[in-house]
Amino acid sequence: MTQVKIENIVKRYGNVSVLKGVNLVIEPSEFFTLLGPSGCGKTTLLRTIAGFLTQDSGAIYFDGECIDGIPAHKRNTGMVFQNYAIFPHLNVFDNIAYGLKNQKHSRQEIERKVLEAVRLVRLEGLERRMPRELSGGQQQRVVLARAMVIEPRVLLMDEPLSNLDAKLRVAMRGDIRALQRKVGITTIYVTHDQEEALAISDRIAVMDAGLVQQIGKPAEVYVHPVNQFVADFVGATNMLIARLVKYESDARRAWFDLGTGSQWQVPLAVAPRGDQCVLAVRPEVLSFASAASEAVNRVNGQIADATYGGSTIRYQVRLENDQTLQVHDHNPEQSAIRQLGERVQLVCDPARVLVFEGGAHGS
Amino acid sequence: MAVNVIPLRRAAWSRYWQNFGFWNIVTLGAFALLLFFLVYPLLAVFGQSLTSKTGDLFEGYRKFFSQPYYSNSLTNSLLVSIPATIGSLVIGVPLAYIVTRYTIPGRALIRAAVVITLLSPPFIGAYAWVVMLGRAGLLNRFLENFGIQVPSIYGPVGLIFVFTITHYPFVFLIVSSAIRSIDQSIEDAARNLGSGEVKTLFTVLLPILLPSITAGVLLSFMTIVADFGTPMIIGESFRVLPTHIYSEFINEMGGNPMMASAMSVILIAICLLALALQRYYSFKTSYNVQCVRPLETRQPHGVAGALMIAFADLVILVSLLPIVVIFFSSFSIGRGSIVTSNFSLENYERILYNVPTAITNTFFLATLSASIGIVLAMFIAYVLVRGKTRWRGVLDSLVALPNAIPGTVIAVGFIIIFNQPPFLITGTWMILVVSYVIRRLPYGVRACVAMLQQIDASIEEASVNLGVPPMRTFARVVVPLMAPAILAGGIMTWVTTISELSSTILLYSGPYATMTVKIFSNVFSNDFGNASALAMILIAATFVPLFLMYRFLGERAEQAL
Predict the structure, then answer these.
(1) In this structure, is residue B263 part of a structural domain?
(2) Is the ipTM of this complex over 0.95?
């Protein structure tokens, strides 16, 4: 299985830098996701790996071998396109056999490999169907089989599930993951859907503005985002503008004023450099204080909105300084559902509060 | 499967080669082709217009504007082209609106009739009108019984009439496709804001259509001013630029090649101006948003409805009358322009006996040219749609150029440059093929471009990604997907080639005379029976492939028009 190394890739279109020096190492058999908003450069990077684009500087290595001079058709990568790019004039069998026919294989061998691929993606019996007779999910399976049957060194997937409906998307991503584990192929997966990225990946590279912001396992990226962008993009986050009151260096603890009359403490290894900070708190980290609660970080507010979602109720709580916090209450008892306008007190675990230096960044 | 480490220098070379691949060679080839066979002949014409013996470089042009003998041709051209263009506007726009928006009886038939009118050679229409309204014409004699004097078909009035009735389809087709791309919600919004049906038409729909109407009108003007056959047949002493260029060029006594060229340059200038304006307005229409729900069609009712139906039927009747007349005239015995009621196959027997080579020549030349043309068109279209070169815009304009260059002028240019070694092909069938390929290139290119724009580029990338090199990807994926366009473009090229007259008449030599040339000479020798039989074969050869194409491709067939 192949290791992919991306070294300082820069790509410009005219004066616009789409990739500004990207470095990544993707380990053999890893399921690696490039996650980011549209325009962050993730698709450009994928297409550069496939050889459809040529970087302005930097290099790409497969198992230590530089592949920059190799044209797209000799790179032996298997790509799954966002809009499937199924060959509309070929049936399922011929679509899957397309790449094999270009390699030196006997007829029997091609047939054996195609049928095996058909079985792998569970399309048995549909070999003679034309693409227009297939559903979106089935077309997706065809192109997946088509990309994998040529035994590529790397599987490249460009938002492959974005054209499917929500339920099918979840089912397909499970299938893709299972298939990838079974075959063990190194996979680079591009998506803008953070939930999908968290669910499917071994590791994620969060990208923004042509740069990798953070690389890590899904839980690392979610629990320990390195900056406001990652905290905000991966999962929902409340951003509270706060002023540093004091830093107790022996207790390694900082005190912040939320501007609502409440002060919060957060364990911090080093003192923040400035006074202005942003506290990031996940909605599920916040909970409603009971009378007996002795939690240290509290804040008062009023229920501004509530969305009932079965297993979760999502509340909007308005603080005294008019800032609104999202609070997710999981598995609430029916009697515990809060009413609009109800005065509440929120508490949160100091260890789950993230501190970012400087003012608020974007939204 | 191990990939060798590629040394840096080879990597750089390989990247260079990848960038300078097959498609750049195709782009260069396309440029070379168009520059040599289109731009060079035009430059040669311009060059010849400056070959004065008196030392005055612009003598030709001075002469042209100072001597009425020459300048009258320009005035005459404008005198008939402008009213005829207005005529095609006045007929084309309402007809397009009526046929597209109202469920009048026989809509499909009307559309088909318009396409037939567009594609049958205008000079055949012209001579059919001579049969009807010429000296001792059918209608003349018929109307004389009632004491009605019909104005002569010969001369400027007849020209305006025939041009109008043969050229309104340009306006009709462009405008009706524009109407179909307007979304119903636009009309609904106007109505919702309180404007009535007629007011909506004039304040919302027509302004939206204006760029298309302008483009259609300019296209119509361009072809009218360049038309050679019609004024040759019914212009008589009323000379326009193309007929004057022709007579000046072939006249062995007292003909003046410099003046023929100077007139050609003036004609080109007029056509290029129209083309430039037309492209500008076509470009302006591209802001159209995608139409989700086309304009609703309505039931015509009341007096207005009856008038609309009457108008549409009258236009179609007048458009198709020439074909009916040719049909009957081809089956009747008779000398000269007299059509009798005796049915006979004599005319067909005569042409099969006398001029079988004209028929085989036509089909051979058209088939060869259409085949070469569509292959070139396929590659050029690919470069135009997928190419990344800066020169794409230039190539796009060059490819549109043949539309604007009158056949007479291109032929003059060809004769100048191919009359001497190393390209001595004047008088051979090759010069005809080359001129057909170049002149009809826009049809094939337009069909292929329209199709390619609908094929997602990622399909090709998928093929390349699966290990198939770009060139083979083109053959294995793009060509099969373009097949309908290749077919439509090829047929359109073929159909318009068999009816080509204006350049053929200057370029052909005895053994390679085509049907159009024979029809033309038969009309001139007043042998209308033969002319009609040949014209009938020509019309059938136009009709049958078009019918099949519409049958198999439906509306998509019109993309090449």
Answers:
(1) no
(2) no
Arithmetic mean of pLDDT, B150-160? 81
Overall fold of domain A4-233 = Rossmann fold (3.40.50)
Of B15, B467, B477, the CB nearest to A87: B477
Q: Residue B249 domain-assigned?
A: no
Domain that holds residue B397: 21-42+345-561
- How many other β-carbons are positioned within 10 Å of the β-carbon of residue B286? 7
CA B490/CA B224 separation, integer angstroms: 24
Q: Kindly determine whether residue A73 and residue B10, on different chains, have CB atoms separated by under 8 Å.
A: no
B460 contacts: CB under 8 Å, gap ≥ 6: B386, B470, B473, B474, B477, B478
Starting at the earlier edge strand, list the strands of the sheet with A238-248: A263-267, A253-257, A238-248, A276-281, A354-357
User: Which CATH superfamily is A238-357 part of?
Assistant: Nucleic acid-binding proteins (2.40.50.140)
Whole-number pLDDT of residue A18:
92
Helices and strands (H, E) in chain A, number of each type: 8, 20
Answer whether A249 touches B (CB < 8 Å). Answer: no
Check which CATH number belongs to the domain holding B538 and give it: 1.10.3720.10
Residue type, A310: G
Give Cα A70 to chain centroid, integer Å: 30
Helix axis angle, B257-284 relative to B59-66, nearest 10°? Answer: 80
User: Where in the sequence of chain A do the CATH 2.40.50.140 domains occur?
Assistant: 238-357
A61 lies within 8 A of chain B by CB: no
Please choose, from the candidates B353, B351, B268, B374, the residue with its C-alpha nearest in 3D space to the C-alpha of residue B519: B351
- Average pLDDT of the segment spanning B366-383: 92
Q: Does residue B538 fall inside a structural domain?
A: yes
In the block, tokens 């049809």 appear at B443
- Dihedral sign, Cα of residue A84, residue A89, residue A93, residue A99: negative
Given an 8 Å threshold on Cβ–Cβ distance, is A99 in contact with B10?
Answer: no
Say what the pLDDT of residue B4 is.
Answer: 43
Residue in chain B lying closest to A156 (CA): B465
Q: Does A54 touch chain B (CB under 8 A)?
A: yes
Contact B461 A89 (CB under 8 A): no
Contacts of A288 (CB under 8 A, 6+ apart): A327, A329, A338, A344, A345, A346, A347
Whether the pLDDT of residue A329 is over 50: the answer is yes
